[in-house]
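Design review, sub-item: ligand-bound model
Attendees: FS, YL, KQ
YL presented the inputs for the zinc ion complex:
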Amino acid sequence: MHRWLMGILACLATLTLAPVYANSIENVRVWPAPDNTRVVFDLSETPAFSYFTLYDTKPYRLVIDFDNTNRKIDVSKVPTDSLLISKIRLSTPKDKQSTRIVFELTEKVDPTVFPLAANDRYGERLVVDLPGRSIARSAPVLRASDLKERKVTVAIDAGHGGDDPGSIGPAGTYEKHVVLKISRALADMINEDPAMQAYLIRSDDYYVGLKARTRKAEEIKADLLVSVHADAFTTPQPRGASVWVLSNRRANNEMGRLLEDKERLSDVLGGVEISIQTDDTYGYLNEALVSMSMDHAMASGYEAAEEIINEMKKITRMHKSKPQHASLAVLTSGSVPSMLVETGFISNPEEERLLLSNKYQQQIARAVYHGVRSYFTRKPPDGTYFATNRASKHVVRSGESLSVLAERYNTSVQAIKERNKLKSTVLKVGQVLDIPSSG
Ligand SMILES: [Zn+2]
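KQ shared the predicted structure:
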């Protein structure tokens, strides 16, 4: 027999003897959130898998078997950064064709494991959700109030997160990172205000489902939900900020429809288990379901959006000078007035640079803060500090200066001085000031 023929036969023999893998693990990502850790496996094909837990002895283990699967990465080198996972490693597979991956866990948790179908950005994925505290920073909580009147609660929703990067700018800026920074700045400003408190629905880089975001705002009985985003268009020209409120019909313009489509993509990329999506997940509201409280929430959301636009246009170009309507799932709370702020076009190179700058992030956050404050000053919810201090009177508290008050009430030191005929800038605790209305 010829040498080359023997060679070919030898090759064929190896081919038939080596295990044939239908699937392969291409990558693994770990997304720790305050009360959960998500692990995402990227796979070349739809996974066939099974899993079980070993909780009788330590270390506690979650074992996942991938049938007919090899791997392209070293799973032990995947950075975990989760308090729940002490180690990810390989273990002896149940057969030669499969891969067994073991998670060593610090707690006995009840995992949820589900596949996600391929889309434009990702191939097939398998998601492992482990409930439990996963980052050192604790879950956002609302601070107890030291006031007799309750504080107004503002739920701040930084768009996207985790596997969902949001829009990506021409220089590679991820929307999810920029909007988290703006949201954190806004939360800090609100928390410094004695009449308000903030709750960050997403406080780090992880995904929260759209419906879960509105549910959270309802759970904490928020007085307002502000979802923070950065816009993108298919061409680099469009620029400027805009504010969106809920419509119970699909948007009637291109930008609105694009926004609706992008929002649905969030749950696809971020990864929401199909079984927990509901018919109204995407905001197509059955008109019969639009209750009186929903009407009220929508009208209030619109008024608050107008106040925010008034403030934003002082510091940035507006793409639209009136609140825009779209059917967005994140705005469909039946009880919490909601709006979505597009802070600028990340697809416009100049605005991408702005959005990346700390200065612009602070300016946007401050404009939203002032808008929120004007709204509650005008429409104070019952029993709140805003309601009892409605007559634009301010009782000076320890540590407050004229400049602090000018900032808070969106007026100037000079205006407060003039209104109250003050000769000096020194304030006394308990002193009552007339606050000029902002203009
Ligand atoms: Zn967005």
